[in-house]
Amino acid sequence: DPKIIQKPKYLVAVTGSEKILICEQYLGHNAMYWYRQSAKKPLEFMFSYSYQKLMDNQTASSRFQPQSSKKNHLDLQITALKPDDSATYFCASSQDRDNYAEQFFGPGTRLTVL
Amino acid sequence: GDSVTQTEGLVTLTEGLPVMLNCTYQSTYSPFLFWYVQHLNEAPKLLLKSFTDNKRPEHQGFHATLHKSSSSFHLQKSSAQLSDSALYYCALSHNAGAKLTFGGGTRLTVRP
Q1: What is the CATH architecture of B3-94?
Q2: Are residues B98 and B92 in contact, defined by beta-carbon separation less than 8 angstroms?
């Protein structure tokens, strides 16, 4: 069974619209993260959460808003979508927000903005 | 700020030859270094990470040595296999936070 679930696997959106990317982890981890991978910037850190609290935000745009309704959930809401937002978005988790802890990545959501 | 540099974007090898993928880094702190591997259409997975006691990490025939003097953490394997074909990322994290800073990645292709 997959331990980190990301939904949907593929997503096509039109410019200006809003989408939510879903992430659930069943590893019992306390820290969760979002990363983005695109042709221009290969793996780029976006956010980190620990016990449902935002710990680090490296995304300049407020159009990207993480949402944690449960300890094992970390969704990503993206508003006013732009073609440059096209990328694969990976959710990851680790036991704790520890600089030495292994981060496990989900399968990703590939977003295409037309 | 932190940065990780992987000088080779593409490496093509013949099966059985040694592999060496370069990784150098810059960090204000004393970082931990990682190698992640990403096979086609899959998620990145941890391959190995530096030890706190400077032991050399090894996994699946790969090893890497952290050289603080040269800020390097090159990935090596004595004999490449076809199944090693993948995208390899070097990354670092440090005490100021658990976020991973990745290098640009090296795509390794192993040919028969």
Answers
A1: Sandwich (2.60)
A2: no
